[in-house]
Fold each of these.
Amino acid sequence: MKVGTATWKKIGLLIGIMTTGFLLAGCLADNVARDLGVYVNRDVYSIAELEQGCLDRYRSVTGVNYHGDESLYRILKTEILPVYGSFCVMARKIEPRTEKVKRLHSYYLQAAHFRLRGFKTVALAIESRDPDLIRVANDNFSKAADAANQWRSQVGDLAELHGIKFKLN
């Protein structure tokens, strides 16, 4: 069977399309890996200390460290809420480039949102002397923990998928 010039052009075009497809797929994978690396190592890392400081400070005045509503309220209003509010603003400014990392970031934002609501609800419970609001606050903290766990899991899964190693606490 004789292969004409038109057939060779079609074969060449098909090979070109397949090669371009493979190259684009590789670039997209690299873009996700790069975006994930920037997201975790630069964006999240740059604000994580603010959040951790607030969580540590909250633990220092609750549970076995609880020394009364006045102390807890003062710490919430003067230290935790202002700093955690700033942390949430910074977290919302993070703009991942790829859809996969954007979806991942939505869990981070959910966790921050529910934690902030929890802190505000504890303060409101103390102001209004309404113990039922503590249950609402605890529900918010539980939702925050669930979202944070989902975020950690997704970071791990996405990193593994793209051959990245992170040390997440």
Amino acid sequence: MQQQVLELIYGASITPDDDGFLVTFRDLKNVFSGGKTREEAIFNAVEALDGVLLEMVAEDLNIPLPSDIQPGEKAISASPEVAAPVILHLLRQESGQTIGIMAQAMEMKYQTYQRMETYGHYLTLKNLKRAASLMGASVELRFRKL
């Protein structure tokens, strides 16, 4: 990862179609969604993005990092509860660490660390910061006005 800041914000094209709007992601070729309204299509696109990213982590697939948002594209972010474990997974892969090594360094059970990279499990900000630090990263919290 050559980026200074790792964010899971992907550029999406939103185009009208017969039933409403279709959303496609340039960096994730097989991810698409839609909705009757533009707002519904964007909401559904976040769900599709989250689901695909989690599946890619579960199957230990290569997750393409987002490229710069292009003119005419809508920036669509993975939800925070999905982005945190996915980014931990990406950092761990980049650093060459195994789950076992991370668990040992954090003085926790293998399964406890493994759950940190899984959606729906209790992930504290303290543990997120510790794990990031061990992999040469830091955690920043930002809020964006809509």
Amino acid sequence: MNRPIHLLAVLALTGVLTGCPGNGAREMLDTAQLEEVQDNRENAHKIYRKIIEQYPDSPEADKARARLDATEE
């Protein structure tokens, strides 16, 4: 795994979880997708579930549901 990219993912996730201003659902979705690319499904799934919980009617929640459906074992 590319260490700088992993570090970027961790920093992004930290920003999302600590309430960085901006479009929270979009930022969380971006982070989850990056986690997925990094082959860290467990973290990606946690973030997808959090998007669905916090932003249930958003387009990002629809995408999160689709990714969970496609990747859950």
